[in-house]
Amino acid sequence: xxxxxxxxxxxxxxxxxxxxxxxxxxxxxxxxxxxxxxxxxxxxxxxxxxxxxxxxxxxxxxxxxxxxxxxxxxxxxxxxxxxxxxxxxxxxxxxxxxxxxxxxxxxxxxxxxxxxxxxxxxxxxxxxxxxxxxxxxxxxxxxxxxxxxxxxxxxxxxxxxxxx
Length: 164
What we know:
Structural class: alpha/beta
CATH topology of the largest domain: Nucleotidyltransferase, domain 5
Order of helices and strands: HHEEEEHHEHEE
Number of domains: 2
Shape: rod-shaped
Strand content: 15-25%
Radius of gyration: 30 Å
Distance between the termini: 83 Å
Strand order of the largest sheet: 4-3-2-5-6
Mean pLDDT: 76
Low-confidence stretches: none
């Protein structure tokens, strides 16, 4: 009898010594579903990289911009795809409508894109809402001179009263 109890105690002790196993299959399933959900829903919103120096104008347009080359214009700099190409202060006194540094960068970007489509390459200008007209005019002229004739202006979409 005592031998039987001794075996029962030893069996109970061995059961207590077993470590708990973590089932990772269900955890991986959850993360797979989460990643899939994020990938599907991320395509609905287009986010343009913007600087804190630029406050975009507001618009009630419903047409969404396509992903294309972006020129960011702040009070200080003209930046193409995150790369500074010109200082606004230097452009203020410059003669002519062509911005040479911007023209060089656009020629390089045009070369990377291959053949020019009918109507020219597409480009988005993201400028502060207080951007001077003379500067916008020079940038647009330079874009057209380098075959970036399909120009879009980035804006913040505002819901109109009729949509609300």
